Structure formats: C-alpha cells, structure tokens
Model the fold of this input.
Amino acid sequence: MMITRCWFLLLAGLGLCVAQPAARGADARFGVRDGDGRLGITCDGQPVATYVYRDPGILRPYFTDVHAPGGVKVTRNHPPVAGVDAVDHDTMHPGLWLAFGDINGQDFWRNKARIEHVRFTEPPRARGGSLAFTAENRLRAADGRTLGTQRSEVILTLVPHGYLLVWQADFLPADGPLVFGDQEEMGLGVRVATRISEKGGGVLVASTGARTAKATWGQSHEWCDYSGELDGWRAGVALMPDPENFRPSWFHNRDYGLMVANPFGRKAMNQGETSRVVVEPGDRLRLRFGVYLHATPKDGDADIAGVHRRFLGSRAADVSAHSPGVPLR
Done:
C-alpha cells in the first residue's frame, strides 16, 4: 500500500504554521509501504522510520531506523553493529518503543509478555496535514491470557528542522483491573544513535537546563534531548511527556544513549513510595508523548521549546489524562 499526500499547511485552528525543516521543501510528501509486519515511512523518498508491528523476537510494536530530515538516522542501528555500537539490550532497545516492565506482574519490556498487534483500526493516511494511523493491540500475559487492550494513535507531522511524532495510547482492562507497577523500565523509551550518546560524544540536556544523563536521571522535565554531530548535521531526539498525563514523568536517562519518560517508577526513581496505578474494568488510562526528531546545520540550533509548545497546542480538545475513577496509589 502506497500513500502520498501534500502535508505542508497552515493549522489555522491552532494558530500554528507547519514550517519547513532542514532539507525539506513546501511540497514535501510522506509515503508509507505496508508489508511483512512493517510500515516503511518515507518523506520525499528519504527514510523517516519503520513501524514494526509483528516481530517474532520482539514481542511488542516499535519504531526502528528512525531518521531526522536529510536522511540522518538518530536511533541506534537495529540490530546493533558490533564494533560500531554497544550490542547490549538488542531486543529491548530497538529504536523507539512504548513498553512496561510490570503490568499485573507481567514483563512487556523484556519480551516475556506480549503486546500483540490485532489490527489497524485506522490505516495509515493523511489527516489534518499529518501522516497518522491507529492500531489496536492486545496485552497478553506470558501464559496467553488477555489482560486488556492498548489502542495506539500515532501522528507524524512536519515541524521546523524536523518531524514531530505524537504517540497516544489508551489502556483498557479486560475482565479484571490493569495494575501498573513501579520500575525504571516503564514508559516511552528511545535508544539514540551511538555517536550522539554521551559516551559517543553527544550531549543530553533537559528543559530545566540540567545536562548529562546523571544530572537528569530521576527528575521530571518538560523534555529531554539527546543530540550530537551526525553526517554533517547537528541531530537529535527530544522526548516530551504530556503534562496532562495522570502524573509527570521522571526520566530514566543513561550515558550510553537511553532515554525513558516514565510516569510509573516513583520509588524506582527515588521519588517517594511505591507507585501502584490501578485501572478498573470500564475505565481507561491514557498516555501521550511527543518525540521531536531534528537536524540542523552544525552551527544551528533546533527550536525544542517551540516544538514543545506546538506539541501541547496540538492536543485535541477532548483529550483527558485519564477517565474519572482511576485510583492512584
């Protein structure tokens, strides 16, 4: 399936202009090809990302080979290349993912339980100047029991010097409650390209001005950004938790290139008592994150704060962090 649409426009309703990034013109077009459990996403023929929704070795959907404009790959090679990349966590850190080390005692982060793709309720298409799709996934325990449903809506848009990927997920229980536990390995994660990790010479900076993985670890920030020099560009990835999620995210950041925005790991992140988030049948939990994939000339700067404002402004009017009645313990 091939879809291409012109998607450079003025979002008048939000008062936002979708501006031209580096190496992109006003007539930029997305394309997507579906095959073999993968959506290959391009812009003007250059790679943007691959959304993998069926993989026998990684038991959850994920994005891999994620690029900023100009064809600059900003996530680690998948699989990692020995001698070029550190080869740790090859099936846990495939690029960009949403996963959880503890839902009802089941481990979806380490591929012991499965987030199983069921169908695309909205196949990839142009919508409001963006490329968007919605997937229905089943949360299955290691023994095959269905615990609930995850509905993921992904919207990709053109922004200054990059792409903004918004990932919104609703979690709905099946027959019993969904109980989200307390670990570092919970939430939206990215493993950046080796050369822009701290160990590879890159820089990690937060909205608060804090720098380094160590200084930002376990703290709440509006966003954290990993960036460095790649193929003649200053390129990177910024993670942006929505402040209307049920609570702020703490960042699980590491100098080898990992960033995780985690609203669940309160005790694990040294922020208080053990967190236990219970979603009862008939209720839902909604999480929303933005991911800014950016590239500028080496002496340029991406407008992370500006794109963060755009991310907040693009929220649908009826979006709520969670439906009433979700008890937080």
Notes: The first strand starts at residue 5 and ends at 6. The CA atoms of residues 218 and 269 lie 5 Å apart. The first helix runs from residue 213 to 216.
